């Protein structure tokens, strides 16, 4: 009973609200709102007090020395243009004290993020200090610094393990995403390239341009065409490799197949070859003057396709990667070759774990092989590989390698509206984004497209996972 009572008391202390801490806290809790280590010093937790005070001092220095100069110019992103003047006396050129819009933006975003994090730490600290007050009032033991460290290794070791990955996620994911969002509201492009030029805020103009069609702006037209192809590509690339992998696994593991280990090894070797090597070789094979076109021309395939209207009679080759329709079909077919071996290996492991009692029951009930495949095998594989399929779909939305490596420097768009937006018929949103940044330095529109891609992937993933998790279907396969 005493242990249960102590546990309830501990839980009640841990659930102390921030509002209660400010309202009912003693002088040391209230003083901790100004000096974060004060409450710890009062409870003789000197190490914790020194650490929290050091965090506070470090934050103040960071904001004053690093953040304030940029935050003061955050509303305009700088107003002093770079200028170079020549001094005839010294015969040297000097640079003025100019503003760098991107550094102002980056520094301000980082500072605002750290201010937000510091506010959370400050609230958490007030609650901890109030918990120490409650423990002291009830005569309970207050941990020493050594006991707190021991708890981080034992009772709260999960927090210790997650600390470093959390910092990595913040530095490598969250802050870049915040900067990406901020750039989408500026006019940062080739005409406004820091440090030689300044850029500034433009509000929602870039988002409007993404859905606008006019004589000078065709981003709306390009966005609709590329979004449609991106979603179609993601569906076809995911479905074809998934089904192809299952069928290949079933074929190789069939009792009548000879040398299954040989065939499995052959496809594994295809995985071992780096993807960019495979794609570049295939691009050369299917080039207008490539070996495949040479063979097709010699055996009459090119002429046959011209007769049935699939190839323009004026061409002497099959435009595998230079015609929009041919290129899209070839991209999907080549992706099957690249992606099926991975799915074959995964499907092999899943198929080996299908409950045999269900299959035997179906056979006794008179089900044929096709019915067993449709009613038992596929539902089980879909259930097991559901999360992986969602991941594959999102990955294919952002599948940069296949599209870019097969079409770069080969495919030239004939659609002037797409060309005006620096896009091509075969582009995905991610390759369009890359082209805008790497080739045309249109960072503002690339950031808007990046936000759209993030929203599409996030919404699809959340909806798909929520529907998959909320079923309890694992009971069906036990």
Report on the architecture of this protein:
The protein is built from 21 helices and two strands. It has a two-stranded antiparallel ribbon with strand order 1-2. It is flat. It folds into two domains: 182 residues, no CATH class; 236 residues, MetI-like (MetI-like fold), CATH 1.10.3720. With 478 residues, the chain is mainly alpha-helical.
Task: For the largest sheet, list the strands in their spatial order.
Answer: 1-2
Helix-strand sequence: HHHHHEEHHHHHHHHHHHHHHHH
Looking at CATH, the homologous superfamily of the largest domain is: MetI-like
Number of helices: 21
CATH topology of the largest domain: MetI-like fold
Structural category is: mainly alpha
Main sheet overview: 2 strands, antiparallel
Percentage of residues in DSSP E strands: under 5%
CATH class designation of the largest domain: Mainly Alpha
Termini separation (Å)?
40 Å
Would you report the number of β strands? Answer: 2
Q: What attributes characterize this protein structure?
A:
single chain; 478 residues; mainly alpha; MetI-like fold; two-stranded antiparallel sheet; 2 strands; disordered N terminus
Task: Set out the fold topology.
Elements: H1 2-14, H2 18-24, H3 27-31, H4 38-42, H5 46-71, E1 84-87, E2 92-95, H6 101-137, H7 145-153, H8 157-183, H9 205-210, H10 219-252, H11 260-272, H12 275-285, H13 291-299, H14 301-307, H15 324-351, H16 356-364, H17 369-397, H18 400-407, H19 416-420, H20 429-438, H21 443-469
Antiparallel strand pairs: 1-2
Helix pairs in contact: 5-6, 6-8, 8-21, 10-15, 10-17, 11-15, 12-18, 15-18, 17-21, 20-21
């Amino acid at each position: 009973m005493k242990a249960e009572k102590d546990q309830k008391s501990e839980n009640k202390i841990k659930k102390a609200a921030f509002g209660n801490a400010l309202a009912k806290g003693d002088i040391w809790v209230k003083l901790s709102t100004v000096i974060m280590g004060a409450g710890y010093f009062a409870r003789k937790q000197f190490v914790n007090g020194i650490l929290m005070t050091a965090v506070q001092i470090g934050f103040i220095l960071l904001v004053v020395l690093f953040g304030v100069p940029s935050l003061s110019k955050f509303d305009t992103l700088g107003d002093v243009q770079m200028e170079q003047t020549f001094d005839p006396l010294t015969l040297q050129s000097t640079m003025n004290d100019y503003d760098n819009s991107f550094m102002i933006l980056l520094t301000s975003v980082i500072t605002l993020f750290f201010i937000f994090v510091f506010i959370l730490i400050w609230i958490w600290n007030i609650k901890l200090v109030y918990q120490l007050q409650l423990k002291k009032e009830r005569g309970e033991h207050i941990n020493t610094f050594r006991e707190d460290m021991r708890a981080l290794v034992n009772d709260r070791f999960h927090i210790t393990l997650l600390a470093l990955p959390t910092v990595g996620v913040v530095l490598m994911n969250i802050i870049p995403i915040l900067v990406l969002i901020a750039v989408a509201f500026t006019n940062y492009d080739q005409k406004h390239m820091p440090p030689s030029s300044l850029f500034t805020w433009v509000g929602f103009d870039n988002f409007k341009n993404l859905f606008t069609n006019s004589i000078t702006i065709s981003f709306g037209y390009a966005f609709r065409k590329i979004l449609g192809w991106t979603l179609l590509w993601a569906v076809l690339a995911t479905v074809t490799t998934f089904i192809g992998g299952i069928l290949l696994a079933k074929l190789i593991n069939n009792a009548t197949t000879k040398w299954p280990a040989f065939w499995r090894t052959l496809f594994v070797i295809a995985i071992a070859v780096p993807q960019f090597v495979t794609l570049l070789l295939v691009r050369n094979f299917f080039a207008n003057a490539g070996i495949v076109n040479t063979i097709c021309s010699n055996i009459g395939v090119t002429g046959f396709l011209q007769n049935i209207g699939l190839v323009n009679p004026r061409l002497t080759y099959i435009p595998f990667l230079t015609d929009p329709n041919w290129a899209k079909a070839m991209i999907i077919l080549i992706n099957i070759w690249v992606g099926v071996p991975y799915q074959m290996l995964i499907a092999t492991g899943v198929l080996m774990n299908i409950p045999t009692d269900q299959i035997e029951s179906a056979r006794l009930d008179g089900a044929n092989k096709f019915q067993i495949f449709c009613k038992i095998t596929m539902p089980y594989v879909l259930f097991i590989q559901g999360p992986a399929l969602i991941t594959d779909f999102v990955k294919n939305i952002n599948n940069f390698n296949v599209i870019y490596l097969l079409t770069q420097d080969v495919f030239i768009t004939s659609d002037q509206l797409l060309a005006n937006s620096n896009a091509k018929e075969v582009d995905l949103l991610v390759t369009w984004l890359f082209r805008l940044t790497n080739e045309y330095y249109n960072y503002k529109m690339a950031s808007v497209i990046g936000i759209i891609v993030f929203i599409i992937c996030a919404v699809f993933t959340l909806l798909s996972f929520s529907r998959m998790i909320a079923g309890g279907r694992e009971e069906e396969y036990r």
